[in-house]
């Protein structure tokens, strides 16, 4: 299995969840978190690159934090101040070279997703 997400579940509005992602496709160059709500396109939420520079979608900026532990080959997404609009399937993605943003087609490897439901 190349990437596996965990940590999803249910939360109340205003609450927090922490997602994790690990697997053989983990990349120190570029990792991202994406999400897809029912009936909507997959959208990028956050991305981290080799020098730990991060970017966030405006919809999650200030509430979500992407981080990683290269020694453990694990990517994290700390989600705070959750709202019902954050309800979606969350995917981690990896790219083995530099040059990535929040565009899904830039990533070659994907996990199966973990569901986040906020009520």
Q: Specify the structural class.
A: mainly beta
Please, what is the oligomeric state?
single chain
Average pLDDT taken over every residue: 96
User: Which outline best applies?
Assistant: globular
Total helix count?
Answer: 0
The strand count comes to 11
Order of helices and strands: EEEEEEEEEEE
Which segments are poorly predicted (pLDDT under 50) over 5 or more consecutive residues? none
Into which percentage range does the β-strand content fall?
A: over 45%
Helix content: under 10%
Rg over CA atoms, rounded to whole Å, is 13 Å
Report the span from N to C terminus: 31 Å
Task: Give a structural overview.
With 119 residues, the chain is an all-beta fold. Helices cover 0% and strands 47% of the residues. The protein contains no helices and eleven strands. Strands 2, 4, 5, 6, 9, 10 and 11 form a seven-stranded mixed beta sheet that branches. A four-stranded antiparallel beta sheet has the order 1-3-8-7, with no helix packed on it. Strand 7 and strand 8 form a beta hairpin. The radius of gyration is 13 Å and the shape is globular.
Keywords:
119 residues, mainly beta, four-stranded antiparallel beta sheet
Reconstruct the topology from this structure.
Layout: E1 4-6, E2 9-11, E3 17-22, E4 30-36, E5 43-49, E6 54-56, E7 64-69, E8 74-79, E9 88-95, E10 109-110, E11 114-118
Parallel strand pairs: 2-11
Antiparallel strand pairs: 1-3, 3-8, 4-5, 4-9, 5-6, 7-8, 9-10, 9-11
């Amino acid at each position: 299995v190349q990437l596996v997400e965990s940590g999803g579940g249910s939360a109340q509005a205003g609450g927090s969840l922490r997602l994790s992602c690990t697997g053989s496709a983990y990349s120190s160059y570029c990792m991202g978190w994406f999400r897809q709500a029912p009936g909507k396109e997959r959208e990028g939420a956050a991305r981290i690159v080799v020098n730990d520079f991060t970017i966030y979608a405006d919809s999650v900026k200030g509430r979500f934090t992407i981080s990683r532990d290269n020694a453990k080959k694990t990517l994290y997404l700390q989600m705070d101040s959750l709202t019902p609009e954050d309800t979606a399937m969350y995917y981690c993605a990896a790219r083995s070279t530099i040059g990535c943003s929040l565009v899904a087609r830039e990533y070659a490897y994907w996990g199966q997703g973990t569901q986040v439901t906020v009520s």
